Each structure stands twice: as C-alpha cells, then as structure tokens.
Amino acid sequence: MVDKGQVIRLCRSLLRAGRQLPDYNIREYAKRRTFDGFRMNKNLTDHSKVEKAYAEGKKQLEVVERVVKVYLAYPPKTKNIMELKLH
Questions:
Q1: Which label site among 44, 73, 75, 82 has the fewest CB atoms less than 10 Å from its CB?
Q2: Which residues contact 75 (CB under 8 A, 6 or more apart)?
Q3: In which domain, by residue range, is 29 found?
C-alpha cells in the first residue's frame, strides 16, 4: 500500500530530476507536467487507483531520468533564447 510519504517523495524526485534537464523548455514542461499530474490525482481514495497512479509516476520518473542522461551525454550545440545572457 502506498502512503502519503511515498507520494510526496515521488513528487520531489520528479521535480529534482526535472531540474537537471539542461533545456529550459523541457525543464519547465517536466515541472508543469509533474504538478498537473499530482493535482489531477490528489483526490483519489480507492487504493487500487492510488497504486496505479503511483506506478505511473514511477514510470515517469524513470523516463525523466533517462532523458536527463541522454541530454547530458549529447548536449545541444546552441543555447535556447531563454538561456542567452543579454549584454
């Protein structure tokens, strides 16, 4: 059975993993997607649905961690307009 602490740890893990993404747009998408997913499921009470949502969150965490590894292995050659420093 999934308890509240596990859900909070999963949310924090997803947010931490998303902050490691080097691209601004993907980083913001990951953050928005995390918050939206947890808001959407915050009122779940059925244990089977909670377990299913938690398992989906764990899968999403694995996906984000894989994407971070790929981005770190093959960084983009140009910077995003949001990351350029204007002088």
A1: 73
A2: 22
A3: 4-83
